């Protein structure tokens, strides 16, 4: 109203001094508004563009715009200020230790960490300070609208951490729900097909239903090849899973990750929230335990919407999808099958034959051509590693007993079996192998004849060995 009165009085011929006296304001204030009015009128007389005329008229008629002055936040000081910059230093230190990574702490992650530590500060204050520190231009997003149970988005995110003092890279399978804003995640050692299928099966079990559509990027687990520019040929495994659970496969265009922006942002925020400041763990078990708990905390605010969305999902099949990758292999002359550059033993009677391998995330089942179970191995994650069971080579070693001690099968045998050999059979390897094969107590001068001479450890060793053949050792 002061500006309005000043301009009205000026147009009615009053002097600036008179206006200031009547309104009780500074003469400098009157001079400023009168000068601005005259400049605007002069610009208006020279302007012919209708849009620019409207802007000038708006400036003449609108209320004064006060310049924002700089001020020092009364909260952002002392221990809060020191801790804020310590967190930024921790963020930079992580980059130095782990190398290039996508776990940079966001302003939200820093704010949440400060609140957890008991500081009282507004999120806007922290965002402003982080923006000033990094001077990063904000990204523009497009708001989309979805219905319950309509769509889920899938992606992998790399996570770099230190486990037992070593730099390790894990792969976070991320599935986000744009409607309920819920994010599901699980850590794997790689992004192979077994991990991909396992994550989808676990996700469906977690939700208790299936979504109508899942959006992927063009990862090799989904897209086998591009037929034409906009046509893709999907892998057999994803087609089978889609058929079983009833979700539609949708892939975004090449190099257009923004088409599944919710999972890109959700997975990135999840990774940063968990590992920006907590990235050192004593063991892998500690890492997985921490991840599971942190995931629940992250989704705390989305739980109500997630429960609502679960009511709109497609019904799951009666049985869980059998997710093992089926692979045929030929048993070589060392009685090994090769799977993903690693080697796994099978009983020596299968040398030269073809067997079927069901490759799971953490283990491998081997069956014969008729589907009969042969053996099971824990899955190796490296390259050119061996998993050998000494029981698979019993017949061969009986014929070649002197090869026992230096064989890989013996060196990978359980400690108690090797200890039993060195304690009772070191001069008679064939008798040791016969005992392993039959599970019975051998007639050996090296084995104590009196029951009282057999210590408890030896009895447990014999019972364990015999139990592998479904037999019992009587005391």
List keywords for this structure.
475 residues, alpha/beta, Arc Repressor Mutant, subunit A, Nucleotidyltransferase, domain 5, 5 domains, 6-stranded mixed β-sheet, 4-stranded antiparallel β-sheet, 17 helices, disordered C terminus
Give a concise summary.
This protein has about 475 residues and is an alpha/beta fold. It is built from 17 helices and 15 strands.
Describe this structure in words.
The structure is a single chain. This protein is an alpha/beta fold and 475 residues long. The protein has 17 helices and 15 strands. The strands form 4 sheets. Strands 1, 2, 3, 4, 7 and 8 form a 6-stranded mixed sheet that branches. A 4-stranded antiparallel sheet has the order 9-12-13-14, with no helix packed on it.
Say what the CATH topology of the largest domain is: Nucleotidyltransferase, domain 5
Number of H/I helices: 17
Q: What is the number of E strands?
A: 15
**What is the straight-line distance between the termini?**
105 Å
**CATH class wording of the largest domain:** Alpha Beta
How can the largest sheet be summarized?
A: 6 strands, mixed
β-sheet strand percentage:
15-25%
User: CATH homologous superfamily of the largest domain - what is it?
Assistant: Ribonuclease H-like superfamily/Ribonuclease H
Structural category is alpha/beta
Low-pLDDT residue intervals, each spanning 5 or more residues: 442-461, 468-475
Shape: elongated
The whole-number mean of residue pLDDT values reads 85
Q: What is the gyration radius calculated from CA atoms?
A: 36 Å
Overall domain count: 5
Q: Tell me what the CATH architecture of the largest domain is.
A: 2-Layer Sandwich
Task: State the helical fraction.
Answer: 40-55%
